[in-house]
Amino acid sequence: MDSKSLPLLKGGEHQRLKKRRLSEETCKKFDYRVAQMGGRTVQVANYRDGNKVVSQKIRDSKKNFTILGKTKAISKLLFGQHLWRDDGKRLVITEGEIDAMSVSQAQGNKWPVVSVPNGAQGARKSVAANVEWIEHFETVVFCFDQDEPGQDAAKECAAILSPGKAAIARLPLKDANDMLVAGKGKDLIDALWAAKTYRPDGVVDVAAVAKMAAAPMQQGRAWPWKTLTDATYGRRRKELYGFGGGTGCGKSTLFNVIGGIDAPTEGMVFIDEIDVAQPDSYELAWVRCHKVGYIFQAYNILPVLTALENVSLPMLFAGLSGDDAREKAAGILTRVG
């Protein structure tokens, strides 16, 4: 028992929670009790490590919470986890014990549902502590509160799991218990099954790519070479084109000319109606900075600068202020880990 532990509360009864529309059967399954503490009627959520109760979350009528037992350990536990085997098709994770029991009751108390112990603010820590167990399930649905903190926490938790495993449920009411109280148990179940798979910004799955590939091709701007235009239907903005070929066939020369590094011996190259073979050095530098992006085989990182400063440097050249460049660079570094 850690230094700040308070003794576990003994006794209590499994009772129907009328205002929550939770049955005695549901409360008994999750060992959620009603007891007396200090002359007050409280609700007791028992948290287990294995089959042993090690922590209790006490809730009074004014929604004040007290942790008994191992106060530090509770953040690493999930309410109701002891009820379910270590794998399965689908797991629902909620933001609170009442919501977990609400989801379970709506599903006939047959399918895996657990809750994080400390609400939205501690959800990520609890999910991370149990990620190995959670990963054994094929699909994990986060059914958190529909307010901004709840949805932000759901995204943070979903990002911890393997890509494509997590989904986030959207409800027409604030939380799962509100759905149950409103007599919308079937709608709650429908929302869980309709939960959309979480995808980080900018990431698409194979199904989305296949749908895009099957869409009719739109004709773009012609390449300088008719055969290439016929093969690719021309060029379109926001698309990526890769060029392959044998050693010495001119791949690097082509891109050096397009990017204004080398001047063509014949013909002209235009970028946004600017002939890159003609501008003076200042204008050409502006075109390279604002219209062309280079990814070199060597990273060309300056060893005297930090990672943040290296990423910020091109943005400073492009005219961003120091603060804006650092903020944007920090965001980029965070995304790539």
From TrEMBL:
<dbReference type="Pfam" id="PF00005">
    <property type="entry name" value="ABC_tran"/>
</dbReference>
<dbReference type="GO" id="GO:0016887">
    <property type="term" value="F:ATP hydrolysis activity"/>
</dbReference>
<dbReference type="Pfam" id="PF13155">
    <property type="entry name" value="Toprim_2"/>
</dbReference>
<dbReference type="InterPro" id="IPR027417">
    <property type="entry name" value="P-loop_NTPase"/>
</dbReference>
<dbReference type="GO" id="GO:0005524">
    <property type="term" value="F:ATP binding"/>
</dbReference>
<dbReference type="GO" id="GO:0043139">
    <property type="term" value="F:5'-3' DNA helicase activity"/>
</dbReference>
<dbReference type="Pfam" id="PF21268">
    <property type="entry name" value="Helic-prim_T7_N"/>
</dbReference>
<dbReference type="GO" id="GO:0003697">
    <property type="term" value="F:single-stranded DNA binding"/>
</dbReference>
<feature type="domain" description="Toprim">
    <location>
        <begin position="89"/>
        <end position="166"/>
    </location>
</feature>
<protein>
    <recommendedName>
        <fullName>Toprim domain-containing protein</fullName>
    </recommendedName>
</protein>
<dbReference type="InterPro" id="IPR027032">
    <property type="entry name" value="Twinkle-like"/>
</dbReference>
<dbReference type="InterPro" id="IPR003439">
    <property type="entry name" value="ABC_transporter-like_ATP-bd"/>
</dbReference>
<dbReference type="InterPro" id="IPR048774">
    <property type="entry name" value="Helic-prim_T7_N"/>
</dbReference>
<dbReference type="InterPro" id="IPR006171">
    <property type="entry name" value="TOPRIM_dom"/>
</dbReference>
<dbReference type="InterPro" id="IPR034154">
    <property type="entry name" value="TOPRIM_DnaG/twinkle"/>
</dbReference>
